[in-house]
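Second attempt. The first submission of S-layer protein had a stray character pasted in from the spreadsheet, which I only caught after the job came back as garbage. Lesson logged: always re-copy from the clean sequence file. Corrected sequence (436 aa) follows.
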Amino acid sequence: MRKNVLKRAAAVVLTGAMLLVSLAGCGGTPSSASASTVGSSSATSATDSGAPAPTKQFVIGVAEAQANDEVTTRRAYFENFIAPTYNVKFIFSEVLKDDAAVKTFIENCIDSGVDAIIDFKSNSAQMARLCEENDVVYTVQGIPDMAPELMEGDFPLFTGWSGADNAQVGNLFRDWLEANASEDGSEGFLVSTSLAAQGNVQHVEVSRAILEGLQEKYELTYEKTIDELVASSETTNVANDKNILITLYPGSPNKETWLPGISSLLQSGKYAMFLSSGQTYNQSATAVNEVEQAFGIDIKVASIAAFSTTLTTAFNTQDPNGNPSVDMVTVKPSSALNACLFATTYNALNGAIDTACRDADGNAANYRFQMISITSPEELAMTEGWDDRDTGTWIAGKEFVDSMLVTNNPDITPEDINKIMASLNVESISAMMEKA
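This time the job returned cleanly.
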């Protein structure tokens, strides 16, 4: 850890207003790189332990790639729980569309005196180098094989990657496909790859998992590699040796062109399976419903989701066939992922990057988390109150976060943190929530 990081960290006394003025006052800053600052609000759960908040205050910038329930929940978790509990401040970006916007946001954060960046958009050596040059700790949501330069480079202030266990996510989709797809694949599969072509790590991981699941179920040989297919920015029919119809549709559901495009494909009547690497089930619900009525078919929908009122409504709203409007979602325990990202960043800021953020070979650590599959209103009901931003009830409460912090466990290692993250499942989370 460089001395300047700790020097500046100890001296940070910026107020929220100063941070806002710094960011808003940078000439030439695109709107996508504007930000807001939090850290002064309190949360009931922050004082449950009765322990005083840490006295050293760090400032962390959060670079966002999208705007959906997951992002709203993350911001509430950081703003209302982590900030007051651990005496940190956060600067949140707006949606960052490309690396240029991320770079501008990070530069503005650096000008405002941040100590660290948590990056949900980029996974690149360029951003790590920018942070390195300015004595700023850098943490990403991602996977190492998406960023070989970052993996192979020398970045002492890079803490590592936190992302979904791709094999486990793939198994969730594969298990669901095995139980719900036909034996011959004749129904047709429409796959929303979301922002995978732009490098969004979650979308890349899940798109890969879907294609791998279909490949395994039907023993397919694709003409192109899965990486090539996922990286396509155009609507693509996946050529395969059994001529099963698999169509990849890229793009963000937040764009005006996304819904008309997906609706047009669905209205062809060729698809009875709609699989999404992002959170799209809510945007596409009306289009799916109209096609089901017009063709008298049941389109099965599987998607990524976050715990929210939107998800509850989807599972409790019936389509024309009497089925929920969504059939399967894989939900990440959002607060747990964000707790892991915060913990690794906080450990580095507290001088433990060489022990708490390095694997046995001395490389930046690779942290994995498990996703949860939900296939019915009854299963969803079991998760009621989990990561509820309205009530401030979090899966990753203070005891959970503390277990990953070097300030509480001086000998904590990435292996220890991965064991903690791997322990999360419906049963263990239920027990944690009951205890809370």
